[in-house]
From TrEMBL:
One of its GO terms (molecular function) is hexosyltransferase activity. InterPro entries: Glyco_trans_2-like, Nucleotide-diphossugar_trans. This is Glycosyltransferase 2-like domain-containing protein. Residues 5-126 form the Glycosyltransferase 2-like domain.
Amino acid sequence: MPIFSIIIPCFNVEDTIEQTISSVLNQSIKKYEVIAVNDGSSDKTLNILRSYECYEFFKIINQENLGLGAARNTGIRNAIGEYISLLDADDIWTTNHLEKINNFIELNNSEIISNDEIIYKENNKISYLINKPPQDLLELYLGGNTLSPSAITIKKNIFDSVGLFIEDKNLLGLEDWDFWLRTYQKGKMIDHLDIPLGIYRRDIENMSKEDSFHKKTLDIYRIYGQKLCLSGKLTENDYLVGKTFLEFRRNVKKFLITKTHFLSLIIFFIRRKSFFLTKLMISLITRFIYRQISINMKNLKMKKDLKCIVKELL
């Protein structure tokens, strides 16, 4: 029986899937199976997947287009490994990814593990990505999602208590944050391996896509906010502070990308001034700034190493 079941949801990924699968085949340990779920692709994805059927450990599951969450769930239901390793079809692992995760599990008896990654953008820019898990449920909820699916390994029995990924296409892209929130609600914690073990491809920021994603983020925030307020774990004022922080972070990102909207950012700050003076907001902004500083320090310290890893894998 394999230790790891690698789940790769595939929808029209003919341009990237070969590099992704190659990074799996090149792993330094072979204690895995691969489950590629073809989620109704209309391009050459299925033909490419079939070229790997010669490998006994490589499984292909075809289904109509049901979305990312449903594709992951199909793979998980058919997995026989002790651990589920998520891998998006445009991301790439380093050759020692599974070996490092396996060693970490043996040393710490971990149930859920996150590792760091390298962000690679279409304009050839690279950056370190810290996937350090939050300390508790409220930090995860109020601070927003900072974990990347392709950098997560989950013991399969966790899904028995937490449940699978949501399959609502209207929340596409938020399946992972919803899952982490439910994971923390069940009292489960995520251990962190602070070394880069993969490349996370990111498109050059598209404002319309970013705006759509932000709206869905606020939907998840509202849904869980209602639950947390009813359970007494969150006050209504803290809910509003957290929402203001997510909107502020979004406006800052918009300004940094476009170099415009500065006046809008100032007006937003003035209108929500009372929220920015709270202890919670100061804490959220401090953690946000600390994370950005930590990423920049990693970039400076490991610039040469990151370039070498990207050059080797791409």
